[in-house]
Specification:
4 strands; four-stranded parallel β-sheet; hydrolase; binds 4-nitrophenyl phosphate; single chain
Length: about 160
């Protein structure tokens, strides 16, 4: 079993969208018994809150169901659970490096766009201010197939 964890600042915009999209991709490839997917926040700011209305609307417009999702701050147990931690921007990377209990946990952390040729080091910006949730979806849609390929190769 591979465990994939998506993380952003609030766990109400980017990482829940990534979780829902990646779960759908895993289901489409009939891999639900091999890959588990979760998402978490680096902050406690939005703890217990559902995805942002704009994120919910964008998820629904692409056939994804945001119901039941709530923001959860990352814990030491989450770092331990995860095989790979996929995050959105440089600020998220710094926060995760600070929060990671061990060096091995730090090494699990990657920027989502790392899988897109020419986009290493690039960020998926926070749509909380811009409200460009469809841009977030399209960036994730470019990055996530590469992550599914990597995870399925790791699982062999
Ligand atoms: P997210 O967006 O990190 O993509 O979930 C944000 C959500 C909440 C806040 C910032 C970004 N906030 O400051 O509470």
């Amino acid at each position: 079993m591979e465990h994939v964890l998506f993380v952003c600042l609030g766990n109400i915009c980017r990482s829940p969208m990534a979780e829902a999209m990646f779960k759908q991709m895993v289901a489409d490839r009939h891999l639900t018994d091999q890959i588990q997917v979760e998402s978490r926040a680096t902050s406690t700011e939005e703890e217990g809150n559902p995805p942002h209305p704009g994120a919910q609307k964008t998820m629904r417009s692409h056939g994804l169901d945001p119901s039941g999702m709530v923001s959860q701050p990352i814990t030491a147990a989450d770092f331990d659970w995860a095989d790979v931690i996929i995050t959105m921007d440089q600020s998220n990377l710094r926060n995760l490096n600070r929060l990671a209990p061990t060096r091995a946990d730090q090494e699990k952390v990657h920027l989502a766009l790392e899988t897109v040729p020419g986009f290493a080091g690039q960020e998926i910006p926070d749509p909380w201010y811009s409200h460009r949730f469809e841009d977030t979806y399209q960036s994730l849609n470019a990055a996530l197939p590469g992550w599914l390929d990597r995870v399925t190769q790791a699982d062999q």
